[in-house]
Amino acid sequence: MKRAAFIYGEELTRRDSRVDEVFGPTRLQYTYELLKAYRAFDSPDSLLVAPEDADESAPLSFHTREYVTAVKSFSKGKSKIDPARFNFSQMGDNPIYPGMYELSTLVVGASLQAAEMVSEGDVDVAFNCSGGLHHAAPSHASGFCVFNDVVIAIESLLAKGIRIAYIDIDAHHGDGVQEAFYSSDRVLTVSLHESGRYLFPGSGDVKEVGVGAGEGYSVNIPLAPFTDDEVYLWAYDQVVPALIEGFKPDILVTQLGSDTHHLDPLTQLSLTTEGYDGLVSRMSQVAKRWLALGGGGYEPSVVVRCWTLAYGVMVGRDWPDEIPAEYREQYGLRKLRDVNKPQLDSKVKERARSFAAESVAEVKRRIFPRHGL
Q1: Could you say which of 181, 312, 314, 326 is the most buried, measured as most Cβ atoms within 10 Å of its Cβ?
Q2: Which residues pair with 89 in a beta bridge?
Q3: Contact 359, 227 (CB under 8 A)
Q4: Which residues have a catalytic role annotated?
Q5: pLDDT, tens digit (0-9, with 9 covering 90-100), for 104-135
Q6: Of all helices (H) and strands (E), which one includes residue 52?
Q7: In terms of residue numbers, what domain contains 303?
Q8: What's the number of domains the chain is made of?
């Protein structure tokens, strides 16, 4: 059994959910409460850890000082700067809200804390489900992401001379993380996502392989809408295990967005909880040490179940499918795993299969030789 930590505190949920219902803080609260109902933290090998705030210098390891200063002033409602300059808008994906800076630095702090626990050997795996904000750029917000805790946590590990592989299974391409390490061979980034032809942020083509020393270290596996468990897992198995084995990372960092699920309202992939659980299990098999972060997911009942399953993999627990009575009575969820799978037309399935096969073949042609595969 692995020793695991789950980073959570009520302060991570102190946000006015009205500013953005689909990416609200209740996802974190409901996940914690379900894990607690399953008695996930009753074992000495499963630690519930309160988040620690990052110091003011932490965001500056990736973001510009001008941007960090702007976020702080927007958070206080005192800024005279045009929010659009930093990609903030009350009508878009990046609304301004009171306490935005404080909450964003707390998320960064939680990811740094999780990274520290893993790198120092306190635990084998640490899961900060509030993290995984992989779109944020050095000088602007993007896709609900203010500070890129993923990049900041990875940078903290690189400073210790630790070799990192990053796997991103969010339905949206992990563009911010890819860009941060695009010219580096110190981090292998792998993103499986719905193709940018159909979904924000529009990037993540197979041809994006890195530049200079980083050529061959940015790996993208774009997938077609309605890709199901079978095709997704096949694509993963064709590419990821061989690359991880060849790269031999010291720590695996993963972004575990659950918006690949067929019920997610913002995406068009067709995974089930079975497929998601299978992906996380595969990561567990190759992770000697593992920093796990959250990410996207816009149907709360799906996010809660997927992240609960994920933490079960991390601690080696197979939760009963029947939701504990106290949680079921409060929130109405009855089963942890999906009861029904999406019914897809045969032509749609074949199109997704062909699309995945083309992506896999192109990755093998462009990336594998660089790694002696």
Answers
A1: 314
A2: none
A3: no
A4: 135
A5: 999 999 999 999 999 999 999 999 999 999 99
A6: none
A7: 4-371
A8: 1
